[in-house]
Amino acid sequence: MNDADVSKQIQQMVRFIRQEAEEKANEISVSAEEEFNIEKLQLVEAEKKKIRQEYERKEKQVEVRRKIEYSMQLNASRIKVLQAQDDVVNTMKEAAAKELLNVSHHGFRNFLKDVIDEVTEEAMELLHLSHHHPAYKNLLKELIVQSLLRLKEPAVLLRCRKEDLHMVEDVLPSAKKEYAKKANVHAPEIIVDNIHLPPAPSHHHAHGLFCSGGIVLASRDGKIVFENTLDARLDVVFRNKLPEIRKRLFGQVAA
């Protein structure tokens, strides 16, 4: 083989190697392009997912804030309604208490009767008695007997209004006798306290302590106290009838 043949053969080998290298380079380039496109697509999808998640998170935050604001507004409205209802009920109670001193106010008495029959009936009965000497005197006796039956103490301290003192002293003997008979015990010792209950309310002392009538009985050591005033009895009746009062005034209100 001469030099020309050798040179020709070498050139053929070079062309073959170059062609093979170019083909390999093309394969690498195509593969790299595909991997780049795949990675780029993955990055784009990942960013899209992040954006969607961020949007959903903010959307949920907006929805939560909207629900919170709605709930706060709803609660505020409910509180206003409940406050208004309480104001109406308290106004009625205050008016019923005033009736303990003003039986001649028939218009309001009729209104109360339509709304809270039993409260009115109790208040009117107590009030009527407190303004008629014989009947109120008998009521004081019954209140004393009732209080003695509740306490069942051999010795008690009694407190009343100053203006009721003479009536209380008049009925004490018969009250003790009646209690002893009902409870089948000896007549108790009743000491009338020289400290009196507040007087009836007046325009001059509208915001001071007051008592519309009745008595307070306590054990000698003061540990047991039974308040049996007209105001306390009105409170008890009103408290017991409050659900019915609310139902009649406002109906079935959704919670």
TrEMBL record:
Does the keyword Lipoprotein feature in the UniProt annotation?
no
- Gene Ontology cellular component? proton-transporting two-sector ATPase complex, catalytic domain
User: InterPro entries in the record, alphabetically?
Assistant: ATPase_E_C (IPR038495), ATPase_V1_Esu (IPR002842)
Which keywords belong to this entry? Ion transport, Transport
Which GO terms fall under molecular function for this chain's record? proton-transporting ATPase activity, rotational mechanism
Answer yes or no on keyword Transport.
yes
Q: Which family does it belong to?
A: Belongs to the V-ATPase E subunit family.
- Return the protein name: V-type proton ATPase subunit E like
